[in-house]
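Design request, tokens follow.
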């Protein structure tokens, strides 16, 4: 039987590349901050917080819709919500309208298609859960850098400059058209294809798996769920702190460096985060959960030490190395979540189980706030960096508690 699952993987990668645009808020918001000079940083930052909340909600709804609606309907619905969200945001003259358009509509749309794509591709690749998660999530991670760069190139900013409004409309329309086309072609495997795929992964028993296939209620009753959930919050919060304070760390280590250079250096985190997602997704398939999680924690802690050395020696070169390494190891988080939920708790209830595990974002998103508070308290980003190092070490301890997946 000939499978075209690689074709579906390409479609999924394209859709997540567009859906990941919500993570480019730090770039998208720059022209808004220059235009609305009376809006505070906190008001603009709240947009992303709301976006993450509705991302989790959309992910939950996408999980519940899996198997009940054709996946193309979910993709099309997401495209319509993106179009509506960006259009509403383009008309914003108050934070409330921005929160509704970008925060609620776009955040929900991103979570909806995120779960739909990963759930469908998990069914297409039961034998390579980590690898396919890594590849798809690479696209999601790359979006903030590559699409953000396009936005910057075509969207001048300044007081009274409204170019961002037309850019928002264009982005909404572009995503809607891409999702329309991809939705026509994208699908889950049928009964015959599922039977064939089951043979690919069922021919060899995985010693690392418990062999469970349980629903969400049973999953959340297991200690393994809560231990792994804590690991995701620990690493996710540290990653959010790194991303949120990256520009400030680079400025402190290289005072006088041009803003364009600072933005490029900070962008290295996104690039190597995407590369790390593929690497660690594949590592999960080959070596299992424990090796992957320990490597992520140890590598992230070591990367923080490089950044500490960069601040101590005022070396921008060391900052670059630290950002490359930290972005790479932080990339191990998301594919591990996807692969772990499927391998530990089974494929039948994966869409909903996966969305519940992703609720870690509600707490991890405060990592950026913690990083900012540490800077305010100490007057230097070195305190934030020690928080990153401690998080990596704590995550290793949590990993040791998770004896079986």
């Amino acid at each position: 039987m000939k499978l075209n699952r690689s074709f579906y993987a390409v479609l999924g990668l394209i859709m997540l590349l567009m859906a990941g645009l919500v993570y480019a808020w730090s770039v998208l918001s720059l022209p808004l901050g220059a235009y609305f000079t009376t809006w505070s940083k906190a008001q603009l930052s709240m947009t992303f917080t709301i976006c993450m909340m509705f991302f989790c909600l959309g992910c939950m709804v996408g999980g519940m819709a899996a198997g009940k609606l054709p996946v193309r309907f979910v993709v099309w619905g997401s495209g319509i919500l993106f179009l509506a969200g960006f259009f509403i945001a383009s008309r914003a003259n108050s934070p409330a309208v921005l929160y509704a358009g970008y925060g609620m509509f776009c955040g929900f749309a991103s979570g909806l298609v995120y779960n739909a794509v990963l759930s469908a591709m998990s069914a297409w690749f039961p034998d390579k859960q980590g690898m396919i998660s890594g590849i798809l999530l690479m696209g999601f991670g790359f979006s903030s850098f590559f699409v953000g760069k396009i936005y910057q190139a075509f969207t001048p900013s300044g007081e009274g400059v409204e170019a961002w409004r037309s850019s928002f409309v264009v982005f909404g329309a572009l995503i809607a058209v891409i999702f329309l086309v991809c939705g026509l072609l994208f699908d889950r495997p049928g009964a015959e294809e599922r039977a064939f795929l089951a043979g690919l992964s069922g021919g060899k028993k995985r010693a690392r798996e418990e062999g469970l296939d349980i629903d969400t209620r049973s999953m959340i009753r297991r200690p393994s769920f809560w231990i792994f959930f804590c690991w995701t919050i620990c690493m996710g919060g540290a990653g959010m702190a790194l991303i949120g304070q990256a520009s400030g760390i680079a400025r402190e280590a290289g005072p006088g460096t041009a803003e364009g250079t600072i933005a490029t250096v900070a962008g290295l985190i996104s690039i190597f985060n995407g590369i790390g997602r593929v690497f660690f997704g594949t590592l999960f398939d080959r070596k299992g959960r424990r090796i992957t999680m320990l490597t992520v924690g140890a590598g992230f802690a070591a990367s923080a030490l490089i950044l500490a050395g960069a601040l101590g020696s005022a070396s921008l070169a060391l900052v670059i190395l630290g950002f490359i390494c930290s972005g790479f190891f932080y990339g191990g988080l998301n594919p591990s979540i996807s692969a772990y939920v499927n391998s530990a708790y089974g494929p039948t209830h994966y869409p909903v189980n996966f969305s519940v595990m992703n609720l870690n974002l509600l707490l991890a998103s405060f990592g950026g706030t913690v990083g900012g508070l540490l800077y305010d308290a100490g007057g230097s980003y070195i305190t934030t960096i020690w928080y990153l190092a401690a998080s990596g070490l704590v995550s290793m301890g949590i990993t040791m508690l998770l004896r079986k997946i």
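Comment from the thread starter after seeing the answer: thanks! Confidence is low (pLDDT under 50) at residues 203-209.
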